[in-house]
Design brief:
Blueprint: H1 6-20, H2 36-42, H3 44-48, E1 61-73, E2 76-83, E3 86-93, H4 101-109, E4 115-124, E5 130-141, H5 157-162, H6 164-170, H7 172-194, E6 198-199, E7 205-206, E8 218-221, E9 226-230, H8 235-243, E10 248-256, E11 268-277, H9 281-298, E12 304-307, E13 310-313, E14 319-322, H10 323-329, H11 335-338, H12 341-350, H13 361-372, E15 381-387, E16 403-411, E17 414-421, H14 426-443, H15 453-460, E18 466-472, H16 473-481, E19 520-522, E20 529-531, H17 534-545
Parallel strand pairs: 3-5, 6-10, 14-15
Antiparallel strand pairs: 1-2, 1-4, 2-3, 4-5, 7-9, 8-9, 10-11, 11-18, 12-13, 15-16, 16-17, 17-18, 19-20
Helix pairs in contact: 6-7, 7-9, 7-16, 10-13, 12-13, 14-15
The structure holds one RNA strand of 76 nucleotides.
RNA sequence: GACCCGUUAGCUCAGUCGGUAGAGCAACUCCCUUUUAAGGAGUGGGCCCUAGGUUCGAAUCCUAGACGGGUCACCA
């Protein structure tokens, strides 16, 4: 059991002693005291008083928070309590608390980790720290788990991710990151609302996985008797809404992809997708720049942010480079190689990249891009005009049928956004889905898209010219908060089950499954246990069969 | 999926050549009424990740596995 530990038992017994004293260690109806930030603001004048003892005994103020430090000096003690704003020091002693309360309760039973309510007046200590002199100190919630050590804190990555609550208690910057994340999401939402977009919610469980190239999670609906796929992207549903007449929509929510995990991939991640009728991908790029300007202004961020050892300049407009041009100018791939399937494959192999010989030119170019360009795109850069065969949902360029009217936005060597003019020709869409299905056959591409006939039918009713874009929220938050693992911007990242929390299987008789330890003996040879009473065992085994 | 690194007290970490476990903080018992990682004296606390193996003897060496981190692959 998780409570089988001397420290925890010690703390549980303290909670019991509180009860014996008639004090509920988990009282109801406690209200939050003055926020610590307000305490410092409101009583700043005490520091300026012209007196030997700087204090204002006429004031009565209540603070609530978790005890982070305690320093007991005989008949008096200092503690620091923390609320969501920060740390405040409190002071309590034998003579200013009710008779006997200091020696029996406050000193003995309150400890680091407990949440308390302190009431008293502000004063300034000899070392100049504004502090609350307690007339009353109550338990608000007794912590029975000990906190990590105060100086080094909690550094074990595994515990930090598994027990995020503990991480947040011990590492204030973690809380800051997630406050920042919340603000960013809120600003994005407000930005799109202010631009006339409608927020919608589309299914998380899809009959056909679509809208991206990815392996889905599969689940089962019992009543319908059908398998469902957790959505890999909301795209096809949002476009159905465009057909239906919603001309500007967005959705901020989770996507699920059954793929590898690393510093930029979590199986569930958050994106915003938005669709804008009667606009094109150039409008999207401008809108994206406006969005970044808006976020940076509202958060009062400098235009140049440090990301690891990189300096990223977010000044708009962002650079724009066509895809094939980027291969040569940024990636250093010879022009004739970038334009030729066979030469591209050979070039990749020369550079130690394993490639499937069946790849089409577009896929070869994509490999070249991933290998030689992506990592070099530090400042925000729009890569435009993608090969059509790797863009199955994008509209074909009228000037060059090999090119999709599409862009992706990169920064710090990572993809952040993907947008394009939506393909709205139903017959073309049908053929592209078919081509994807063929690619699945030819190269075994498990991520290739599935045929979605209802979506083709929807397009058959006519979709206005529309541009759509998706932005990875987690990666964006990483950039803006200088975090380098997606796990650091997801509150509860995906983890394997924790062995320590699983019930240990009891020793059981190999014949009848009896788990009563007193009736078991170890097997003479090999592992396992058998019943001491063989007759009773045989009887039980028989009953089990029934 | 491959490789590298890690896993020792509640936390942060030592642990030599293979000889049977250590520190600081935390806890417990004392002293201490303005401390700042408070200080002082004392005490208790261990499935050394798990399972095998080598050995007279394993935290330490070997093999397999679990979990985590990293690199690569996959994944845009």
């Amino acid at each position: 059991m998780i409570f089988d530990n001397q420290y925890i038992q010690e703390r549980i017994s303290k909670a019991e002693r509180l009860r014996e004293e008639g004090i509920n260690p988990y009282p109801a109806n406690i209200t939050k005291g003055m926020p610590s930030s307000e305490f410092f603001k409101h009583f700043a004048y005490v520091k300026e008083l012209d007196a030997d003892e700087k204090k204002d005994e006429a004031q009565t103020v209540t603070l609530t928070g978790r005890i982070k430090f305690i320093r007991i000096m005989g008949k008096a003690a200092f503690a620091k309590i923390e609320d969501s704003d920060g740390l405040v020091q409190i002071y309590y002693n034998r003579d200013d608390l009710p008779e006997g309360y200091y020696n029996n309760i406050a000193k003995k039973l309150f400890e680091v980790g407990d949440i308390v309510e302190a009431t008293g007046y502000p004063f300034v200590t000899q070392t100049g720290e504004l502090t609350l002199h307690c007339k009353d100190l109550k338990i608000v919630s007794k912590a029975i788990m000990p906190l990590p050590e105060k100086f080094h804190g909690l550094t074990d990555q595994e515990i930090r991710y598994r027990q995020r609550y503990l991480d947040m208690i011990m590492n204030p910057e973690v809380k800051e990151t997630f406050v920042m994340r919340s603000k960013i999401v809120s600003l994005i939402r407000r930005f799109f609302e202010d631009h006339g977009f409608l927020e919608v919610e589309t299914p998380m469980m899809h009959p056909i996985p679509g809208g991206a190239n990815a392996k889905p999670f599969i689940t089962h609906h019992n009543a319908l008797g059908v398998d469902r796929y957790l959505r890999i992207a909301p795209e096809l549903y949002l476009k159905r809404l465009t057909v239906g007449g919603m001309e500007a929509v967005f959705e901020i929510n989770r996507n699920f992809r059954n793929e590898g995990m690393d510093q930029t991939h979590n199986p569930e991640f958050t994106s915003i997708e938005f669709y804008w009728a009667y606009h094109n991908y150039h409008d999207l790029m401008k809108l994206t720049e406006d969005l970044f300007d808006y976020i940076f202004t509202e958060l009062q961020l400098p235009k140049t942010l440090t990301y690891g050892d990189m300096e990223i300049d977010f000044t708009t407009p962002f650079a724009k480079v066509p895809f094939v041009e980027a291969l040569t100018t940024i990636g250093g791939v010879p022009a004739e190689v970038a334009a030729d399937r066979e030469k591209g494959i050979a070039y990749l192999k020369e550079n130690g990249v394993e490639v499937n010989d069946n790849l089409t030119l577009g896929y070869v170019q994509a490999e070249l891009f991933d290998e030689f360009v992506e990592g070099k795109l530090i400042n925000p850069t729009f890569i435009t005009d993608y090969p059509i065969d790797i863009s199955p949902l994008s509209r074909r360029s009228d000037e060059n049928p090999e090119i999709a009217e599409r862009f992706e936005l990169f920064m710090a060597g990572k993809e952040i956004a993907n947008g394009f003019n939506e393909l709205n020709d139903p017959l073309d869409q049908f053929e592209r889905f078919k081509a994807q299905a063929d690619a699945k056959e030819a190269t075994g591409d498990e991520e290739a898209m599935h045929m979605d006939l209802d979506f083709v039918r929807a397009l058959g009713h006519g979709m206005t010219p529309t541009a759509g874009e998706g932005i990875g929220i987690d990666r964006l938050v990483m950039m803006l908060t200088n975090n380098h693992s997606i796990r650091d911007v997801i509150l509860f990242p995906a983890m394997k089950p924790e062995a320590a929390l699983e019930e240990k299987p009891k020793n059981a008789c190999k014949k009848c499954g009896n788990t009563n330890e007193e009736e078991l003996k170890p097997a003479k040879k090999g592992k396992g246990y058998f019943c001491i009473d063989a007759a009773a065992c045989a009887k039980r085994a028989k009953e089990n069969k029934k």
